[in-house]
Amino acid sequence: METAASAPAFSLAACSAALEAALRGPGCADGRVWFKESSGRNLKSRDWIAPRAALSKLYPRGQVPEDLIERLLSEYRHRLYIQSCKQTGSGLAILMDHPALFTHVLGNMLLYTRPLKVLSAKKKCVILNCAPLQENKGSESLTVSHLRTILLVDHLAEVLRQQGWEVHITPNLALKTSVYNFLKLLRVTWPCTQQTTSNEEAVSNFKKILSESVYTQLGKDKASSNQAQNMLPEDVLFKVHLKQFVKDKELEGYDANLDMALVKEEALRQIAELQHKVEKENAEDGLVIHVVGCEEEFQQQKIDLLWRILNTSRDRVTQKHLVCGSVKVIGESSHINAVQYFQFRRSQMQEASVMKYGNLVQGDSWTEIICSMTSATIRFELLATAHRTPGEWLLLYNYVIPFQEVLCQTMQSLSSTKGIRLTINTETVCKFLVNLSIDFSSYYNRVHILGEPLEHLFNQMFARLQLMKALREVFHTALGTLHVTPPSQL
């Protein structure tokens, strides 16, 4: 009998790779052949399909030789839990051994319902820079787009931690400020400090570096006989040639319109805070991800390039930019800020609770429930888009088995992306949870988990209870990446 300690996890990605290799010989054409089914209707008769159109590129008329099918079955039947492999009008169809795979997955539940930590010889470190919070303004200045960026950082940090990364978030917030209190309402745990770190020495050093840099055209700290050249705005310290720096260093991915940067002290303080975080966390060879709204992307690229110019040490951090699209609020409330948006959603949640439970909705426990549900609603609104699908095999095959792969998809581009722009599939977990909720609701409304107390139905009932337990673990782990606490009642 397999045990959780010894049984290898069944992986849909590994299954797909094995099936692809089985149909391809040396010199075969590139392109995907096998496709995993996901709809309830198709899953009744097949779990994988190699469409005839794809097979026709490999075999005459798309007909796979019978001896090849036999070899596929003999080699992979037990390893990939294959029950049958047949030629159909649609193509080559594989039906998996559902009972065997159910037994394996539910008997080794932790292999599937826990995040897969990537083991590496050296601890991987990432610093998430939430650009909207760098300017240190009050909560009333936060837009709904800024709120989306903040929640994205919070979610991304948890996903990375679950996969074994050492994660640090910047900037630190001062305790008891309006922004700190607002994020606390949203159930966002943000790094905070009793007092602001003084980076005066670093800022002073940065001024010296810029005053001597070949990329600095002119600065207030640099004397000039040409009065016209020194006509800079009062709060501007330096004028820096970013375009020339990008050209000299052969950097890719930056906006073509970046030219001259008018450097103010605030920009140097932001860079000093980033540099301080890198040095404090010993992350000189780590990764810095600037999470920024599309409206501030241009300015953040300037900060990036200035930091490159100012960082004269041999150890240089890798900078990437995760750009969030803007959030458009439609209707009468289109001009509300993030705080007003939260208050609006909380009042709706309060009204809905009163309509359902009446006078019971009062006291600290209900305040906590309503705030928690408001936070969850806002997170899903800003980080997800809705989707749908309808089945027990569907739940296991589409959600429990591929759950670890879903979490890993979020970070697939970290090591493969080129240039400075980073694309993170941050909507993956939300879409996964929405789809799972729809399919689970459909299943739960149709199927009686606790059936009749008849002995011949006990095995079925216990198997379904195990499936419910697995789905509960998946729900809780996925919600945990969003820092959403599952409610005890709705």
- Strand content range: 5-15%
- Which regions are unreliable across 5 or more consecutive residues at pLDDT < 50? 1-5, 220-229, 385-390
The main pleated sheet reads as:
5 strands, parallel
What general outline do the C-alpha atoms trace?
globular
Number of strands: 14
Number of helices: 18
Distance between the termini: 41 Å
Q: What Rg do the Cα atoms give?
A: 28 Å
| Strand order in space, largest sheet | 6-5-12-13-14
DSSP helix fraction? 40-55%
Helix/sheet category: alpha/beta
- The overall pLDDT, averaged over residues, is 82
Note down, in words, how this protein is organized.
The protein is 45% helix and 13% strand. It is of the alpha/beta class. A five-stranded parallel beta sheet has the order 6-5-12-13-14, with helices on both faces. A four-stranded antiparallel beta sheet has the order 1-2-4-3. Strands 9-10-11 form a three-stranded antiparallel beta sheet. The protein starts with 11 loop residues before the first helix and ends in a 9-residue tail after the last helix.
List the helices and strands and how they pair.
Blueprint: H1 12-23, E1 35-36, H2 40-43, E2 48-51, H3 52-55, H4 66-76, E3 82-87, E4 91-96, H5 98-107, H6 110-113, E5 125-130, H7 144-162, E6 166-170, E7 173-174, H8 178-185, E8 192-193, H9 200-212, E9 216-219, E10 236-241, H10 242-249, E11 260-264, H11 265-280, E12 287-293, H12 297-310, E13 318-324, H13 338-357, H14 364-383, H15 393-400, H16 403-409, E14 421-422, H17 428-446, H18 458-481
Parallel strand pairs: 5-6, 5-12, 7-8, 12-13, 13-14
Antiparallel strand pairs: 1-2, 2-4, 3-4, 9-10, 10-11
Helix pairs in contact: 1-4, 9-11, 11-12, 13-14, 15-17, 15-18
